[in-house]
Amino acid sequence: MSRPFPYTYISCPCADTPVPDPARKRRSRGSPQKSPTPEQPNVDNDNKESKEAENQDGDEEEQTFDPRSPRSNFSLYPPEQLLYCEDCHQIKCPRCITEEIVSWYCPNCLFETPSSMVRSDGNRCGRNCFNCPTCTVPLAVSTIENVTATGSQQGPWVLSCAYCMWTTLDIGIKFDKPTNIRAQLQKMTDATAAPALDRSRQASRTFGDLKSPLSSYASIDEQSASREANGEQSATKEDETPTPDLGTDARFAALKSFYRTQISETSTSPGDPLGSDLGFSSPGALNRLMSLYTSSSRLGGLYGGSKKPKSKPPVMREALTASEGLRIAPEKGDADVIERLGSHECGWDGVASIDQRKEQSPDVRFTDDLLPLPCLLRTKRAKRCKSCKHILVKPETKPQSTRFRIRLIALSYIPLPTLRPLALPSSSSLMSSPVPDLNALPPLRPIHVLLTLKNHMFDPVRITLATPSVTPGRVASKVTVLSPQFDIGANSDVWDEALQGASAPVTGDPRLAGLRGVPEAGKVWDKGRNWTTVVLEVVPGTLPGSEAEGGNEAGEDGTLAQQDGDVLEIPVFVHMEWDAEAQLEQQNVGKASKPDDLVARELAYWMVLGVGRIKTSL
Amino acid sequence: MASTTPSTGDNKRTMSAASNLRHSQTARPSSPHTPQQQQRSGNASFASTTSPGSSFRNEDDAIIFEIGARWIRAGFEGNGSPVCTVGFGPEESRRVGDYRGWIQGASGVGTLPQPVNAEDWVRDYELWRHDLRDVDLGLVEDKIERAFRETYNQHLLTDAGSSRLVLTLPSLMPHPLLSSLLSTLFDRWRFPSVTLLSSATMSATAAGLRSALVVDIGWAETTATAIYEYREVTTKRSTRAMKPLMQEMGRLLTALSSDNVSEQAAKDEIAVGFTYCEEVTTRFAWCNPHGDVGGSAPDPGRTISIPSPTSPEKDFCDIPFARLSEPVEKVLFASGVAEYEMDDEEKSIPLLLYNTLLTLPPDARGTCMSRIVFVGGGSRIPGLRQRILNEVSSLIDRYGWSAIRGKVLERQRQRLEQMKISSQSNGEAPSTNNDSASSPDEEKPDPSREEPEIDFVEQKLRRQNKDTPVSVQGVIREVESLGAWAGASLVTSLKIRGMVEIEREKFLQHGLAGATRDSEPPVPDRRSGLKAGDRSSWTLAGWA
């Protein structure tokens, strides 16, 4: 599996509450006049919701969590990745939180990007951080000339990849100075756009990622778009090629300015389907109202005698020239591309792979067209509980700091499960093998695994474990929890344990010694200050089609061949109860608060224990 | 023209009004005190939850997602290309903390331990399939949720749910899929509204056209959608698309890797990794633009080396370049299969185009046939588009615009012709008979190809409109599009509101069932400007 055996995963309880389909809900209730009721679950806090879910589960006779189902991949998390909401008293996974971005930074140079710059930089680092377009390694700025001559490294600069030895020289780009490479690159690529015209269509460079399209188009859109359109028109007039080769973004800008002018030209007419909505106060609306009367009625002459009868209102037309964004496919088609693909100098590595192309402009086909990619920014995000909106995680804003102001991780509230195989002492009569090899468990031979639950709360916890006696899925392994109900001590002062342990340091507690030895049903294996270990007896099932079954299911091997068919995973339902000190706010609200300020709390979730991989043969 | 003078004066006002509108639009979702939201008292606190960092940002730019069976494209309105393209594969549906993809290399590269049925082979890599009988909608919801969350967190870098969402979807979506998509989005995040745009229309818009024949060579199916004045007129679809192509390529590579193993066992089973096969397909699948007869094909002896199917990580193997065009020929052009053997849903792509054009009224046909737009993953295969157009024009040459085929018809027509000719002039009958047998088109010239008689009304009209440019019509012409995503970005940035704008509160009350059944959307309301802001009812328009 993903992690070395043995491992544990916790399923977030939010997986039990399906996405409410409003339509389904309405149908089931059958009372459309009660429209506010379907919203109830959203307003309620999660506690109730989870109880409802439990009830639902109870109705559906305790559905066993199946770690093998494809959906479980989306609800299982390593315990350390889960959060806990103190107000809902629920485990929170990335699916049941909302995130808010606190700051943006470049993971390479750790500079924080101000929020106003993020979008204009296209969510990428605006400085010198680039990734190799072929292998995604960060690129280094280096000189071409040997640095040995003088200390004043003058020479032209390139970006080079230390891993695959790709440099910007491969695509013919050099830089004058080693700083502000991105601006230089942008300028350069804008300049090379014109020479790109005579290249073939597929080989044309488009610099979509590098230009910051939003800064120019969205904010001062009209002005800049028209400017660009003018520039393109002049360009097309210069070299009267039938299909001048605009890059993707240039074409997009041309189309946009074309549509803009078309809309503004035709929006006064009532007949256009694309006219933008005008406010009623606009004189244009009045104008249109008047023209409605004059044009539609035959008595137009009465009202607007001076006006000549209106001719057909202008209709938005389609783009007609290349400067308006139209591009007609070239006559010769893709012949040169095919020629190049089949040629020997291109080869497999000459064509960009899917992963390489994903980040680049959509027209890129060959590796020659790949451009260095500015580093994608990362974010620091605050996380809130989705249902009650309380902050669960709040990191410090500075990119360099790894500290958190608030961080409610689930492991401080739920017991940390750890799993290890039990090596029985050699004196034991059961078997002499030390530790079973978890990557090759022999089928049908019982093994014992120790499940330790460690409590991090300051209250003692009562735990009830439940597991299906036979694991779901095709490989039916038998599982028995030898002592399903036990207590875990509070996470009290460490000195307590140290003092206790000092009384009998070497010989060991006689009570513990009695516990050791043969695992026994109904008895806790081991117990410490804030942890308890219990034994699970597991009999791995036989893989279908293996020798143990005589290979009678060999025909269905296709399903087993899918990954991890042989992994032994045990779903365990954990139910924990504890008496928490009621906090002030809960005291006011909580109906269940006991007189001594203790509130009974409970939490239940599914956990998946990955024990090992089953061998095919005995 | 008379109307141009006032309109230029109105230009500025139009723009300023539009920008006013923009502000008023954006103010709406952020203010919590609209009556609708006050009903939901528990949500009043949401308005104050935006972090200080995000409040500076220009949040009103809508976010555009194009969702297909294999990929999601996402980005901001007004951009020319999407910020990111995210796929759906086994790597994307692993458990959190499962780093096998990094440790062992991505799955699907090497050979599979056992050959897999071609359908199972692709199943893990697609988000959904239109046959919902074997689709787990819950799983689809999970995948969508994760894909959206990670797209927002890693690529878009804005707070999810704070701004409008525009989805570009194929115009035919099963309602359960649409419903679970929308309810996932609305339930998980607080999107104020979701606008649906039809991808075919958007592709036409991104080509700068008002009418087009959009051919989307997608994953599960190829659709040919005729769009006339921004309206979808007809759609025809065929299962000859990228999925069977990929499966065919997988079979080819499997056969290459195991040339000695029993061929019949590997008949429908694929033993090579999907990722590897997809790499080969996207890199080297090609198509001879001139069919079998063309002379410009690369010489048949030419070979290229691709990573060997048995161990793609290590060695390469040589393969004739021509073989890599075989799957394209076989799957997309159905070479070697007669037309009558194909079901309606599996016509070859040229036939699909021809049939779509045939169903159009002549005016629309003339307009659309010279505005053919290819989009979708398959349109990247070099030579494919030219080949399709060549075949379509040869179909038109052969049959004209008539759907009637068959031997009986030919015989009947010949007999009629004979009767006619024999009544006119007895002497020349046999020779013309031979001619007509060879080329049935010549005996009665197609009306579309006749010299049009001079119509004085037309002439007058033409004189009137002589400043408006004459649109190309009636010839096969291909226009390149920037794709559906770019079209949606374009349309959204022009502040054009979509027909289907689903507001959060209304959807959460009734779901898809809340949509009005009106097939006619409330167009007059929108245009008068009276009800620009609120629509009392919403419609699913084409998706209903």
Keywords, separated by commas or semicolons:
heterodimer; A: 618 residues; alpha+beta; 6-stranded antiparallel sheet; 5-stranded antiparallel sheet; 24% helix; B: 544 residues; Nucleotidyltransferase, domain 5; 14 strands; isopeptide bond (chain A); cytoskeleton (chain A); cytoplasm (chain A); coiled coil (chain A); phosphoprotein (chain A)
Characterization of this structure:
The complex is a heterodimer of chains A (618) and B (544). Helix content of chain A is 24%, strand content 20%. Chain A has helices at residues 22-29, 40-43, 46-59, 115-118, 181-191, 213-219, 221-238, 248-266, 283-296, 300-303, 335-342, 347-350, 354-358, 494-503, 510-515, 557-561, 584-589; strands at 7-11, 76-77, 83-85, 90-92, 97-105, 112-113, 130-131, 140-143, 157-160, 373-374, 378-385, 391-395, 404-407, 416-421, 447-454, 461-466, 478-481, 485-488, 526-527, 531-539, 567-581, 598-613. In chain A, helix 6 crosses helix 7 (221-238) and helix 7 (221-238) packs across helix 8. Chain A is elongated, with a radius of gyration of 35 Å. With 618 residues, chain A is an alpha+beta fold. Among the domains of chain A are: 7-18 and 43-82 and 415-613, no CATH class; 96-106 and 377-407, no CATH class; 192-268 and 315-333, no CATH class. Chain B has 544 residues and is an alpha+beta fold. Among the domains of chain B are: 59-88 and 126-206 and 482-543, Nucleotidyltransferase, domain 5, CATH 3.30.420; 242-332. In chain B, the strands form four sheets. Chain B has a six-stranded mixed β-sheet, with helices on both faces. In chain B, strands 9-8-7-13 form a four-stranded mixed β-sheet, sandwiched between helices. In chain B, helix 8 crosses helix 18 (484-493) and helix 9 (242-257) packs antiparallel against helix 11. Chain B is globular and about 85 Å long.
